[in-house]
Each structure stands twice: as C-alpha cells, then as structure tokens.
Amino acid sequence: MIKKIADSTTEVTYLVLPNDTNPLGFLRGGVLMEWMDIASEITAQKHAHCVALTVAIDTVKFKSTVKSGDTVYIKSQLTRAFNTSMEIYVQVWASSLPQMEIRKTNEAFFTFVAIRDDGTPMKIPSVDPANEEEQLLYDAALERRNKKIEQASHSYETNDV
Questions:
Q1: Domain-wise residue ranges, the chain
Q2: In this predicted model, what pLDDT tens digit does every residue of 22-44 receive, in sequence order?
Q3: What is the pLDDT of residues 69-106, one digit of tens each?
C-alpha cells in the first residue's frame, strides 16, 4: 500500500503561557521539543495506524526566541517511510501580538518506529511524494538514514588500551 504524505500531515497550535517559560519569559526548549514530539507522533500514528515510538531526533535548530503570550504553530509531515520506521520533518513558527508577523523559529527531523501490541516493530506503508518539495525531502531522508546507520555502527566500536 502506498499513501500520500498529506494524509498524515499534522498541524497544531499552542499559546505560550508563563508556566512554559524560563525566568526571562522565553519558551523553554524542553517544552517546545515535547510539543514537536507530540505533533510528529500524531503524524507517525496517522500514517502507520498503530502506536509509534520516537527513536531519534536530529539536531533541533533554534532560530529565534519565543515569548510568553506568543502563538506557536507546528507542522509535522512524513518525509519517507522505510520498512518499520519513518522520518518526520517538524517545522515551528511563532507570532507575537500586536504585529502577528509569523516567523519560523525551529525545525528538526524525528524518526519513529511502528510498534505492534506485543512491542515488536511493524511493517508500514510506503509514501509517494506528490510535488517537488516532498520529493526533495523524500530523497534526502534516505541520505540522513544512511548517515545515522553509519554513525551508529561507529559509536559502538571500542579501542583496547
């Protein structure tokens, strides 16, 4: 089965409240990462039709601060589905009153694995990119995956002293 990327795309909106911020009134990175993880998990589960678990988060880029009272918009979309895992691109924008100018603040790539009820990985449907932007993300996902696999194999090597 091949699915469209748009079928699992998720958009969520949050209002930054004082309990989400540090003492200077800026959104805490951990709170934002939780929101990004939730949005991407919804995307993963919509695609796989089962529970999906976060396996990895690539570098989260913080481009600008977000303040208490700002509105945060998060969009997560599948970039590529592999056998049991999938990569999801998460973008974050924020707007402040009174200007309401929307600015991109963050982005990251999340990797999820689809899980059966017994806890074992489950095969998932593939995706078919519908436009040039989706195709670019789709192609780059394989490169990122291969790089992660290579890095993981090197991280377990030990040197005898």
A1: 2-155
A2: 999 999 999 999 999 999 999 99
A3: 999 999 999 999 999 999 999 999 999 988 889 999 99
Neighbours of 6 (CB within 10 A): 12
Cβ distance 128 to 118 under 8 Å?
no
* Topology of domain 2-155, CATH: Thiol Ester Dehydrase; Chain A (3.10.129)
Count of positions (residues) in the chain: 161
CA separation for the pair 114, 51 (Å, rounded) = 6
Q: Output DSSP code: residue 5.
A: G
Q: Are 20 and 31 within 8 A, CB to CB?
A: yes
Which residue is listed with tokens 């939730």? 38
Contact predicate 111/54, CB 8 Å: yes
Q: Give percent helix, percent strand, percent coil of the chain, each to the nearest 5.
A: 30, 40, 30
